[in-house]
Known about the structure:
Helix content is about 15%, strand content about 35%. The protein is α+β, with helices and mostly antiparallel strands. It folds into 2 domains: about 1-85, Beta Barrel (Elongation Factor Tu (Ef-tu), domain 3), CATH 2.40.30.10; about 100-245, Rossmann fold (3-Layer(aba) Sandwich), CATH 3.40.50. Bound molecules: FE2/S2 (inorganic) cluster (FES). FE2/S2 (inorganic) cluster (FES) binds near residues 217 and 219.
Amino acid sequence: MKETDAIIERISAINSTHQHLELAVDESLKSIKVGQFLMVRVGDRWDPFLRSVWYPVDIMRDGKLVIERPLTETYDVGQTVSAIGPAGDHFKFRKGIRHVLLIAYDCPPTPLIMVMPWLIRNNIAVTLVLIGSAVNYEIHHLPPEVEVIEGDDDLNWPNQVVTVGESDQVFVCAAPDDERYRFSRILTKFRERRNQLPKNYLFGVFQGFACGLGMCDVCAVRSLEGLKLACMKGPAFDLATLHLEVTPAPVAPDEGGDDAA
Ligand code: FES
């Protein structure tokens, strides 16, 4: 992992909320693997905590990375950014898998997009479930082979028993403001739906990084093996091996009713 300059060579809107940047990168970044990411600083100000997490969604034949960013951010063709990477570890797939389930929960599925063509090329069926605000993500640029399903806020979706039962592995990304709470809800739902969760089956893909370089502990997660930094050992962790702190539900106000006898 090292710091290099990258140049934005092309910009195109891919739907009403997101744009793709074609990024010419240093040789060291052309071998970035599915699941790895860049920590990027835009502008001249030096600050280790002012970098953004950029997940590639594709690698072009000439080695350029395609990066997906919100349309609310403004970039220029020819602009240079500082990129540190490849950061994190790549996704790990079990041998012989036939169906992978991807879930975006209250966030765009950006960290999960790069894996789609790879899975399709390897004859592995892909289902993407969009939950909560993720349903606002427009999907027409995704590979047509990907089955897309919309879920509700209670984490239900049509034919859930079938899709969960058929999936050999699951990767979930969630809004970074409270990833652990959302991952814990997903874990509970899958425990309801399957008698037992196999090892290396249900992965949470973390995005809530500050430095992204193992310097600040913001991304520390408690696992059965002790504390792990998601930006270094992740971003994907087997959720069944984590201690996920659950945000307590708000307490209802006391309305003065009688105590039960
Ligand atoms: S984000 Fe700073 S240590 Fe992981």
